[in-house]
Amino acid sequence: MTLGEFVKAMCRKMAGGKEEKRFFKEERECTLHGKYTPYELSFLGNKVKVESCPSCREREIEEWKGWYIEGISRVAESFIRQNVPERFWFASISSYYTPTLRMKAVKNRILEFIAKPEGKALLLTGNPGTGKSHIGYAIYKYFLVLHLISDPHLLSPQSLPVVTSALDLVRSVKGTWYGNGEGRFDSEEEALFYYSSAGILIIDEVGVQFETQAEKLILTEVINRRYNNLRPLVAISNLSLEELTPILGERVLDRFSEILKFDWQSWREKIYA
Length: 273
Known about the structure:
This protein is an alpha/beta fold.
């Protein structure tokens, strides 16, 4: 399966519940299928009037929906290629390997977060190779596709999910300090606003040694802004909670509504089998 096929299948599955019909009052009759009621079909932000027999036009309607699925899939694939390492292109929540009750319990907590992320901050900590990054990129792809099928015409930074590493986040903010115009953002505030206002933010490799206190404060500022603005956050670290505490501080850790410990041995070879 190619990435394009994987994304298209994901879009098709998630778009299943995004179809709405508004029926008209009058009733009509088809010589082949009998009586029917015309309706307006809304699908992925687009509308079409189905005034002739829906059964006769079934193939045409499915092709119409398929055309929009194709367009959204291409946009989603482009974002994934830009922001997701190839290792995690096919990562999904459903493919996360959970052979133990402990792992199943953690997966269920993640599913609960996905179902209602508003105002929540999730911290995933624990051993390398236990699937934390797999989960992080799967969450990014889920919310990317969810946004595209909910409002495909709105692609502002404030509506889309963002996935980054802690070091890349810090470096992009620091890049504005030198005023040479070579950074991604024109000002520190623009960079902080980008990460603080994204639809959902996933930060990988939290706790990697920073060089200065100022760099720690950048990450702290982003976490605090998202907390104050009720913007969902997922942070991922290979460090234990005890190791993270002196790095981030108890006040920042208190911003996380839930901390999930991936405290089992590496299952990397099974997750990507």
